[in-house]
Amino acid sequence: MALMGALAVLLASCAGRMEAPGSVTAPAPTNALAAGVRPGPAFASLPVGAMDAGAALAGFAESCPKLLVREDVSGLTRAEDWQSACAASATWSQGDASRFFATYFETVRVGEGAAFATGYYEPDIAGSRDHIPGYDVPVYGMPDDLVRARDGDAERLDNGRMPVGRYDEDGHFTRYYDRAAIEDGALEGRAPIIAWARDPVEVFFLQVQGSGMLRAPDGKVMRIGYAGQNGHGYTAIGSLMRQRGLLGDGPGQYAASMQGIMQYIRENPQEGAALMRENRSFVFFRELTGDGPVGALGVTVRAHASVATDPKFVPLGAPVFLDLDRHEADGLWVAQDTGGAIKGANRFDTFWGNGEEARATAGDMTGRGNALLLLPKGTLARLGAL
């Protein structure tokens, strides 16, 4: 996972559904095939503009080398299903992109197709490669003692993998240092400091996003991306604030957005610092050399074109059409990333790039509506869904 994505993780669980005592909830479907698929309308009938289609074609073509070799855990497609569209995308004119999608794709609803979308962005914060006055917050690379447990030394995770942690002086596997311990200096001599930042609050939110840019006083920019995580589960501090009555529309409450959460932390520095420590998860970074952040698919994510999804329900690399009550997020996107809070059918996290406008849009993005996947023509017939 390259980008954690999802400012919604700050408010995770707020939209959860309460069950009556004693009620029985059907198990959630494990992938798109289990959730059920059915035909959507013809692509030509969708309100997709030429620029929107052109950007999606460029993103799809860039994704194809990964798409053609990646196993699709959604249960919907096979690598060979994408070959014709990928071959055509390499030379197809972006000015005629709508015809490309109409020629090679059919639209599909997963489950009921009811979408929920949030937003993420690439932070641009004050930072420096060198430890200079006023830049005192370390940005850590991967620690040398953070390892995955050997078979038999710990219980496997739900995904079947061994957990990450460290081996103590006696050779026993144990959990890795949490956020509080790291902030108190536990990584000294254990992890490289790849840069220094000015503001610990901005660094906290940089970890939520999973990538960003550090801008030095001389204007030089260092782009960094997700390298790893300490193995502790993510705690959504926005959810904690809501539970404690700190978020809402009432007197003395803060807006239920990234901006509102940051305002609370800055206006209440002692309580805010303690609140951030309740999220024991901690992210480590590496320097990136491309022209943008890299998503879970292994390609650069693009503003207004890339979306994070759950790969169990959307094949990574597949185009997606969104029709939401937040119209700035309407149109074609390409699934190129994943996120810690982006789970389940028709759950999306839209990428808005960097800068203040992107920050404002992503921080306030909560949209509901309908979603369609674009899959190679013939997929539904092969699945027996027609």
UniProtKB/TrEMBL annotation:
Database matches in InterPro entries: 3D_dom, MltA, MltA_B, RlpA-like_sf
Catalytic activity as recorded in UniProt: Exolytic cleavage of the (1->4)-beta-glycosidic linkage between N-acetylmuramic acid (MurNAc) and N-acetylglucosamine (GlcNAc) residues in peptidoglycan, from either the reducing or the non-reducing ends of the peptidoglycan chains, with concomitant formation of a 1,6-anhydrobond in the MurNAc residue
Domain Lytic transglycosylase MltA per the UniProt entry, residue ranges: 124-286
Signal peptide stretch: 1-20
Pfam families membership: 3D, MltA
SMART domains: MltA (SM00925)
PANTHER family named in the record: MEMBRANE-BOUND LYTIC MUREIN TRANSGLYCOSYLASE A (PTHR30124:SF0)
UniProt name for this protein: peptidoglycan lytic exotransglycosylase
